[in-house]
Amino acid sequence: MADPGPDPESESESVFPREVGLFADSYSEKSQFCFCGHVLTITQNFGSRLGVAARVWDAALSLCNYFESQNVDFRGKKVIELGAGTGIVGILAALQGAYGLVRETEDDVIEQELWRGMRGACGHALSMSTMTPWESIKGSSVRGGCYHH
C-alpha cells in the first residue's frame, strides 16, 4: 500500500501553530480601529483554537479603508464574509447598514465576539448565519462574484 503522504491537518498546524500563549508576547489581545466614524475594538485571541481566524488581517483593514474612501452603501444588503479573520469587514458592513452577515465558519468564540460587538450598535435588525460549506457551492451558479441559489 502506498504511503498517503503527510497529513494535511498537521501541515497546516505547522504553518499556523495554535499553542496557547504562542503569540502572547508578539500581539496585544485588543486592538482599536476607526472606520467610517466607528471605533471598532477587536479582541485577537492568539492563544485560542482559532488559528488564522484569530488575526485582524492587513487585507481586511485595506478593504475597510476602501469601503470608507469610496463611501460604500451597505443599507439593505446581505454580506458574505469569506476568510476575513476576526470579522472586522462584516462588522463594519453591518454598522454601515447591512442587514445580514453570512460567515464561512461556525465558531462559538467568533460568534460571541461578533454579537457582543454588534448588539445595539447597528441601529437596525441584524441576522447572522453560517454559509453552506464552500465545497457544496463550488461550480454552482456564480455570476459577478455573487452566489445565486
TrEMBL record:
Alphabetic keyword roster: Methyltransferase, S-adenosyl-L-methionine, Transferase
SUPFAM superfamilies per UniProt: S-adenosyl-L-methionine-dependent methyltransferases (SSF53335)
Transmembrane spans: none
Pfam families documented for this protein: Methyltransf_16 (PF10294)
BP term (GO), one: methylation
Keyword rRNA-binding carried by entry: no
Domain of life of the organism encoding this protein: Eukaryota
Coiled coil region boundaries: none
A GO MF label: methyltransferase activity
InterPro entries: Methyltransf_16, SAM-dependent_MTases_sf
Cellular component annotations (GO), alphabetically ordered: cytosol; protein-containing complex
PANTHER family: EEF1A LYSINE METHYLTRANSFERASE 3, HEPATOCELLULAR CARCINOMA-ASSOCIATED ANTIGEN
Listed name of the protein: EEF1A lysine methyltransferase 3
Protein's organism: Pan paniscus (Pygmy chimpanzee)
Phylogenetic classification of the source organism: Eukaryota, Metazoa, Chordata, Craniata, Vertebrata
